[in-house]
Structure formats: C-alpha cells, structure tokens
Structure to design on (93 residues):
C-alpha cells in the first residue's frame, strides 16, 4: 500500500512539473543561448523544422560556423538574429 501511495504521489508531482514546463513560455534569460528557444518557438508556430544536418550525405557548415559568417556570437547569437529577421512574430529571444 505504501509503495502504491508513493508511486501515485511521484506520478502526480511529475505531472504537475510537466504541466508547468509545457505552459511556461520559451523565452531565454538575458545573455543565454537563444538558438534552442527560437528553434522551439519556430517549430511550434510553423509545425516543424527541416531535417537535421546529420541526415545529409555531404557535410554542413554547422551552427557555429554559420554564426561566424553573420558576425554573431555563436549559436545563441544566430538564433537571436534569425528571430529578428524571420518575419515570424512567434519567434523572439
């Protein structure tokens, strides 16, 4: 009986935490990595993203190298830049 009560309590706690995570808006704190935030927002609003770079036969530049091409600071800077120019009101960081 005790094990079942503990299991139910744990399941309830996990459910509450999961509910809070799902309902919390995806906004990064000042200075944190915006790539994950912006890509998650784009996936939610646009219905998905393209294929992962590892799915292609020929090598890709990678996020860090693309960020350097645009003179921004790493993937977080790239996410912030893309959110500002993508025309999607749902993406911001």
């Amino acid at each position: 009986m005790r094990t079942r009560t503990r299991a139910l309590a744990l399941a309830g706690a996990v459910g509450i935490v999961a509910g809070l995570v799902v309902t919390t808006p995806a906004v990064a704190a000042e200075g944190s990595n915006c790539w994950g935030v912006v890509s998650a927002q784009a996936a939610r609003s646009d219905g998905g993203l393209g294929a992962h770079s590892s799915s292609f036969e020929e090598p890709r530049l990678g996020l860090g190298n693309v960020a350097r091409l645009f003179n921004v600071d790493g993937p977080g800077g790239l996410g912030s830049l893309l959110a500002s120019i993508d025309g999607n009101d749902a993406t911001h960081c």
Notes: The two ends are 48 Å apart (CA to CA).
